[in-house]
Specification:
Oligomer: single chain
Number of helices: 4
Largest sheet: 8 strands, parallel
Helix content: 10-25%
Number of strands: 8
Length: about 190
């Protein structure tokens, strides 16, 4: 077994495996409590592996990919519905549009780093929702616009912070809330 040191994220993943196993009836409450305490103080990968070795991993939350790279020229791209948000994205667009819709996305961590390289006609749209904050302060741009909707009040906890870095030499970045349907607009007026 590896003697590599574990992170808080590794400990949290092990605790989630233990909780799911207890919910399925594979561990008693006493076993769960004992193993969770051990997971929270574990120092190495082998310490954590011992705690979950006798448990199945099916039914566990999916593990996000470390990085997704999108290099697109011409056309349109879209991530929508129940897609798994990675830890990092590298996006390069030229004469193309890419929409990342987070309204139904599966979010397993608190920060998404996106490095952009937007060339002429390369446009990125982020569709957010409550608890999703976009920070585009570290994007340098010579042409194109950056439009980020204001953060909603402090009563909504932040679920995901999207941090954009990189450059735009002719593309736009827009972060917005989902568009309301005609029915939603009518209900809101009444």
């Amino acid at each position: 077994m590896s003697e590599q040191r574990v992170s808080h994220r590794d400990r949290d993943a092990a605790v989630e495996i233990l909780r799911v196993a207890a919910g399925d009836g594979r561990l008693t409450a006493a076993e769960l409590e004992e193993r969770v305490e051990a997971a929270l103080v574990a120092r190495t990968a082998s310490d954590l592996a011992e705690l979950t070795a006798d448990l199945p991993l099916e039914g566990m939350p999916p593990q996000a990919r470390e990085v997704i790279r999108i290099d697109q020229r011409f056309g349109e791209g879209k991530r929508a519905g129940r897609w798994l948000v990675p830890h990092r994205m590298e996006i390069r667009l030229m004469f193309s549009d890419l929409k990342l819709d987070f309204t139904e996305a599966v979010i397993t961590h608190d920060t998404l780093h996106i490095e952009v390289d937007l060339r002429i006609g390369g446009n990125l749209t982020l569709v957010t929702g409550p608890g999703i904050v976009v920070d585009a302060d570290d994007v340098t741009y010579s042409r194109g616009d950056i439009k980020v909707h204001p953060v909603t009040g402090p009563e909504i906890p932040v679920r995901l912070r999207v941090v954009l870095t990189g450059r735009s030499t002719g593309g736009d970045i827009v972060a917005r809330l989902p568009r309301r349907t005609p029915w939603q607009r009518l209900r809101r007026k009444s």
